[in-house]
Specification:
single chain, mainly alpha, three-stranded mixed beta sheet, 7 strands, globular, disordered N terminus
């Protein structure tokens, strides 16, 4: 286990993000309020996007900068990757609340949009659609800016395993656990609890993780399509996420078993995001 460092204190807490989930099979749409500001939707997304920004070509980086120059809300690419959560409840974007995830039944032999996104507009479809907007000359700069912010967020989401999790469990939101003595749900554990427990500020964490990526990693991880990435996440759900024993305890042992998986998912998301952005913006 790496030496723990003292967490930086936030002087002014960022308002909690409120997300509206419409999970197929649920009795009603549930308003899910983020319990802390340390979400994959915050630190995790910023780590992924900071690494991806360094991984893309210089031409792609200029294209990103040109689009963000028109953004009145965000001054940096990592911060812009949070936008898709911020606007989740706005009627204008009513198509997209379900685009952050996909629901997969327990014991599924494989994962695909064709099979698992029939009733809900899901994260794989959204990644494909936003990539298409960025590639096409038919869309204006404002539309491409929104597509960029959606695309980068959704690629990050897809690599948080529980965004490709069980529909009957609402991606871990309905599984309660005790995480170092605090009452949490499994989704929050993989969103932010394990990342927070490292004790590393997100900027330093991004630098550390990028330094660990090898040329072979880049070559291997750049293969495949979003269907394949979703299946990787789902296999983590199947094989590791719910292994908490009878007491449903998340502690040091669980952390030691899974933090390397969290880190690898962050790195994979960044490499794959850079690959997609180079393809749709770099030519």
């Amino acid at each position: 286990m790496r030496p723990e460092t003292e967490m930086l204190k936030l002087i002014a807490l960022t308002p909690l993000l409120v997300a509206s989930f419409a999970w197929p099979g649920s009795v009603a749409t549930m308003d899910w309020v983020a319990p802390e500001p340390f979400l994959w939707g915050r630190d995790g997304h910023k780590i992924v996007c900071k690494i991806a920004y360094q991984e893309v070509s210089s031409q792609t980086r200029r294209a990103i900068d040109n689009l963000l120059a028109e953004d009145d809300d965000y001054d940096s690419f990592p911060e812009s990757c949070l936008w898709a959560d911020v606007i989740r409840r706005e009627p204008k974007y009513g198509k997209y609340p379900t685009a952050h995830y996909m629901n997969i039944p327990r014991g599924a032999a494989h994962v695909s949009a064709d099979e698992h996104c029939q009733s809900t507009y899901c994260v794989i479809e959204a990644i494909e659609d936003m990539s298409g907007v960025l590639e096409s000359p038919r869309f204006n700069q404002g539309e491409k800016l929104e597509a960029l912010k959606f695309l980068t967020h959704f690629i990050g989401d897809l690599h948080q395993p529980l965004h490709a999790g069980y529909g009957d469990d609402r991606g871990g939101n309905d599984t309660s656990v005790s995480a170092w003595g605090e009452s949490r749900n499994m989704h929050s554990v993989w969103d932010w609890v394990l990342i927070e427990h490292t004790g590393i500020p997100w900027q330093a964490y991004a630098v550390q993780l990028q330094d660990e990526i090898t040329p072979i990693d880049r070559q291997l991880w750049a293969r495949g399509m979003p269907d394949n990435w979703a299946e990787e996440s789902y296999q983590i759900v199947e094989n590791a996420v719910y292994d908490v024993g009878e007491g449903a305890v998340v502690g040091d042992e669980y952390y030691e078993r899974n933090i390397s998986t969290v880190e690898q998912q962050l790195k994979k998301a960044a490499v794959r995001m850079a690959m997609v952005l180079d393809r749709v913006l770099g030519e």
